[in-house]
Amino acid sequence: MSRPASFFSGVDSVCAVGFEDNAPPWRNEQLWQAADNTLQYLIYHYQYQLDQIIETADSIKILVASIDSPLDWLCKNTCAQCFAPCCLVADVSYDFRDLVFIHLTDQTKPPGQPRRKAHDVCRYLGPEGCLIPRFERPWICTWYICAVQKKYLADHDEILRTQLLSVIAQAGMLRKQMEDLFITIVAP
Question: pTM here?
Fold first, then answer.
């Protein structure tokens, strides 16, 4: 199959993510846009073969929606008291699965990685928490529950802790399945 020359413009830069300096992948505007353009092209080109992947992405969205309010509650009760909240210190970035999910579920694509440089504070952190909807955040912002949060849940709502961990595990497996299916279709 031949691809138009415009497909290849920026593909090398999408692959050259600069891990040698611990920078997040697609860390600058040009790399971010190249990754976005590549995914848009692939989704458009293979749109009639993506039904199963879109169903998987929609299932992930339903699972994440089911834990959005409990996670917001958990963050409000733990993060404000934390001496090193993840939004300030964790090295968080969007990965390939995040971008595929965002594209397949028609979410608003964030303007770039949470951090422009490895040690920046998350650009999406506002005075009362994250400024972007959970569906548009990197997956790690949903699945990571720190030790303090796990203890808080164990002390306040063990059933909720078990449910959160179960839903997060299910969504994580579906994300892997979504990525595998996507790659199988676009890179036969």
Answer: 0.85
